[in-house]
Amino acid sequence: KRHLISAADLTRDDAVLILDTAEEMARVADRPIKKLPTLRGRTVVNLFFEDSTRTRISFEAAAKRLSADVINFSAKGSSVSKGESLKDTALTLEAMGADAVVIRHHASGAPYRLANSGWIDGAVVNAGDGTHEHPTQALLDAFTMRRRLVGRDAGIGQDLSGRRITIVGDVLHSRVARSNVHLLTTLGAEVTLVAPPTLVPVGVGSWPCEVSYDLDAVLPKSDAVMMLRVQRERMNAAFFPTEREYSRRYGLDGDRMAKMPEHAVVMHPGPMNRGMEITAEVADSDRCTAVEQVANGVSTRMAVLYLLLGGSEPAVTTSAATTN
Ligand code: CP
């Protein structure tokens, strides 16, 4: 059975196949009728134990564009608040015939547990687990970088060899950073993490990337600069960095952005703390791909669901668009 739990599980060929399939899906989005019949009769469950705007809506849109039935489950307002376990929740979903379960959970490892428990038969997709991984975010980020740095058509079949990507900020609490480090290096990119010493994870020395504490020195050598949200909800209040001090050392403002090469892009997975890790001037500039990343997330998640559930049939044919 196939699942998507960690970006570290993907080979270079797996990742390029997903990005190429996402390009096919994006062409469907350019058509007047945006739907494919590929997953008709299949059921995708969005199982969200933690808040989300982009990921949940994006998976819902992706599944619906592939004609799957979608069940949205949010822990808030469910029997989880009465103490129901992950196992009993999973068994309930299994009884409803879930072909895929997209799970976001505050506990690192919850998607792995679900995939290997025997509680459900369907494919499991990790939509963010604790501070561990967020593989589809890394895939949509890589898709966005490949389009911007290699080209939409020129990028087909290509990876990100030789591109220099800088990831800045609260790496300690960031599942986005961890998944991106794994995926980007698998795709041949050189990754540098820039963070305050207190927000660098113990064990980062074993990650396949460089670590710097000097953002201004790294910016001129970057093809893409990914700003991370400072995740106060995962910090002890005593360790909150002050907004002023943090943004002075590690925030991206217009003056700092001017140090980047002209072709380089600014990325942010969202949600943003405007004024903390990124100024409004940078967030709203043409060089910032945050909104483009959200749009690309739908095509990327269509590709993931298609490859996990649809598999053998062609994803897109000239007559495949449907009004259903
Ligand atoms: N980037 C991201 O995961 O956003 P959400 O938390 O809104 O899903």
TrEMBL record:
Presence of the UniProt keyword Transferase in the record: yes
Binding site for carbamoyl phosphate: R54, T55, R104, H134, Q137, G270, P271
GO biological process, one term: 'de novo' UMP biosynthetic process
Domain Aspartate/ornithine carbamoyltransferase carbamoyl-P binding, residue spans: 2-146
Enzyme class: transferase
One Gene Ontology term of the molecular function aspect: amino acid binding
Catalyses which reaction(s): carbamoyl phosphate + L-aspartate = N-carbamoyl-L-aspartate + phosphate + H(+)
Keywords for this protein: Pyrimidine biosynthesis, Transferase
Residue stretches making up the Aspartate/ornithine carbamoyltransferase Asp/Orn-binding domain: 162-308
Subunit-level organization: Heterododecamer (2C3:3R2) of six catalytic PyrB chains organized as two trimers (C3), and six regulatory PyrI chains organized as three dimers (R2).
Protein role: Catalyzes the condensation of carbamoyl phosphate and aspartate to form carbamoyl aspartate and inorganic phosphate, the committed step in the de novo pyrimidine nucleotide biosynthesis pathway.
Family, similarity comment: Belongs to the aspartate/ornithine carbamoyltransferase superfamily. ATCase family.
NCBIfam families: asp_carb_tr, PRK00856.1
Stated name of the protein: Aspartate carbamoyltransferase
Species classification: Bacteria, Bacillati, Actinomycetota, Actinomycetes, Kitasatosporales
